[in-house]
Amino acid sequence: MTAFLIENMAPIMFGALVLFLLLGYPVAFALAANGLFFALLGIELGLFRPDFLQALPERVYGVMNNDTLLAIPFFTFMGLILERSGMAEDLLDTIGQLFGPVRGGLAYAVVFVGALLAATTGVVAASVISMGLISLPIMLRYGYDRRLASGVIAASGTLAQIIPPSLVLIVMADQLGRSVGDMYEGAFIPGIVLAALYAGYVFLVGVFNPKAAPGLPPEAQTLQDADGQTRRLSVLVVTVISGVIGYLTISNFTKVGAGADFVVLTMTVAVAVSFVIAVVNKISGLGLLSRMAEQTVFVMVPPLGLIFLVLGTIFIGLATPTEGGAMGAAGAMLLAIAKRRLTWELVRQATESTAKLSAFVVFILVGARVFSLTFFGVSGHVWVEHLLTSLPGGQVGFLIFVNLLIFILAFFLDFFELAFIAVPLIGPVADKLGIDLIWFGVMLGVNMQTSFMHPPFGFALFYLRSVAPREPYKDRVTGATMEPVTTGQIYWGAVPFVVIQLIMVALVLLFPSMVMHYKNSGPVVDQKKAMEQLDNLTPKMDDAPPALDFGTPPKIQ
């Protein structure tokens, strides 16, 4: 028995951890207890050196001294302030009016606002709860299928985990030992493509089942000019003009040529131009823009301005992610002040929620450090490496196995738990196989999104369940009695979007350039100039000092 334990300590330890988690013990304590128990057992068997435990205080201190993880409370606080300041409500109301008459227009608005909230808040709970409270009653009022409505709200809220500034990407970068800025830049395009796939699914539902996603009736469209016309074309015109000016400005007056930083900077200039046009139109009364176009611009400017403040400064290298998060938190408070919604109670609630989430993350990370210390001490990393590198198919076989493993574990574990338990084990193997860790991290981030959508343990589904009506209620606008949203409808509504997320994982695997573009935005080295400078530093033969002859004795004068 002793020989068996010594031979298989690593797999037994990993299996014991899975057993503790399935029994329902808190993850942080299950990790730490498992690590300490097997450390003592390993010492008793002579397999684990007691000296390893002396490194534990330094590891715990390293968690608290980690500057990268400071970005988590900043972005969490920013998201909670924005969620409670009414920005989501204004966005959903205006964008819902903009897309309203189109079949499935409200669902398109939810996807669009979900992507925008993801790029400003980075917090799934804030996005799902906001859109569930605001848009779900409206979608039910106008006859949307309950499965489609609940699914699109939950899925759009999870975009906050792949579109920067995402908490999952911060943790992923920290665990893989890579730059958070590079991880953000690599995830930018996959996040936008995923949002487009959600919109594509809504389009297909509207085509094949029009009753499931109707357009808004005329009486629900309130953003009209004095003559009763909406003139949505005005929105398209100001968007095209602003976009062209932004593109020409960045192309001709900066050296930024491609990548996510080019997109963010172009968007920033375009937003500034559209804001100037809207302000001039409002002050002068020229009527250049319709009421809908003017309202759309004024509602879109604050979140887009915050996106530049956070992501723009990170992408162009002016700020680290931690500094960007601090600026974003300050910007969110300024927006709340501008809307006259910043109160002491709001700040207190946001601070308490931020402290709880940050403590949750730190406790899991401390437990993970205890577990990993013992796991490495019993050569668990060698066991994992041999197990994964011996898979058939090389890199392809490894990637398929890892994605299946993460997908299955996501049924039971939260993304923080996946990032702290699984990623430290598989990351070094991916690096040894020659896989780019930024691309690997983004791919895992997309896969981990499914942990929010898996029935029956998806957190996004729990968030939506907490705000969806459980009993029949009377609609405040129409006065009609509305049926509740059942848990089964929420679960079935999530299934198509889980499939879409898996399709996105396959797209990242098949088209790695969606992520690898981050390498093109780094500093470019001119090899010719570098060689010239190197030649200038190399001493010429003519300038060399005379050689010393050690074989001839010096002459004495």
UniProtKB/TrEMBL annotation:
Principal cellular location given in the protein's record: membrane
Sorted keywords for this record are: Cell inner membrane, Cell membrane, Membrane, Transmembrane, Transmembrane helix, Transport
GO molecular function annotations of the record: transmembrane transporter activity
Q: Where is the chain membrane-spanning?
A: 12-43, 63-82, 106-136, 148-172, 187-208, 233-250, 262-284, 296-318, 324-342, 354-378, 398-425, 490-511
Q: Where in the cell is it found?
A: Cell inner membrane
Q: What is the protein's membrane topology class?
A: Multi-pass membrane protein
Purpose: Part of the tripartite ATP-independent periplasmic (TRAP) transport system.
Q: What is the recorded name of this protein?
A: TRAP transporter large permease subunit
Question: Which species does this protein come from?
Answer: Alsobacter sp. KACC 23698
